Amino acid sequence: MKPIVLLDVDGVLADFVGASLRFLRDRFGLHYTPEQVTEWNLERALKLEPHVYKALCAEFEREDFCTDIEPYPGAVDGVWALRDAGCRVLAVTAPWWSSPTWVHDRSQWLVQHLGFRRDDLHHTSNKASVRGDVLVEDKPETIAAWKVEHPMGAGILWDRPHNRTWPATDMVRTTRWDDVLRIADLAARERAEETRR
User: In this structure, are residues 131 and 151 in contact, taking their beta carbons and an 8 Å threshold?
Assistant: First the structure.
């Protein structure tokens, strides 16, 4: 049975934090490193002044913002390695709802950078509604909610500075694509066995 791997985009495939930090540097002369983003909320993590955070949020709403985000090193090869190993790979990404072009721009980004087909794109804030064998995600709460709906599935927490305080007791923490493949194969076999029972 072909493993179904669900991949979050920002924080796993797309360097949203890096794009945000570049904007803060170029617009305000503020120099931060990704290691300084130690919590999910950029405003709190970096102690941004209100006018700076407001400008950053306006940048997120800019047409083409998310098409300008760089893929993380290894992300393109990792996605193709999963496909080459026989996995069905789906992108599951929460849109920036206040941006009128985000969904279109993000879809274009996924097609151009990572070879996704449009049928393999899921734009939703409710990732628990998408079925798969594995969810690879950088937000622990999202994995926890997904696991409630998909108890046979495996949650993989993609290790980033903003999620390191989370005690990942019921999920694997990694940034290795071979770990994703190994866990996806195991989860698909367990699903097949459960189906046969």
Answer: no
Q: Where is 121: in which H helix or E strand?
A: strand 121-123
Q: What is the secondary structure of 4-56 as a DSSP string?
A: EEEE-SBTTTB-HHHHHHHHHHHHH-----GGG--SS-HHHHHT--HHHHHHH
Domain ranges across the chain: 4-14+70-196, 16-60
Would you state the structure tokens that stand for residue 132, as one six-digit string? 């798969």
Residue 91 φ/ψ, nearest 5 degrees: -90, 130
With tokens 């290894």, the residue in question is 74
Assigned CATH for 4-14+70-196: 3.40.50.1000
**What pLDDT, in 10s, does the model give residues 49-88?**
999 999 999 999 999 999 999 999 999 999 999 999 999 9
Does this model's pTM top 0.90? My answer is yes
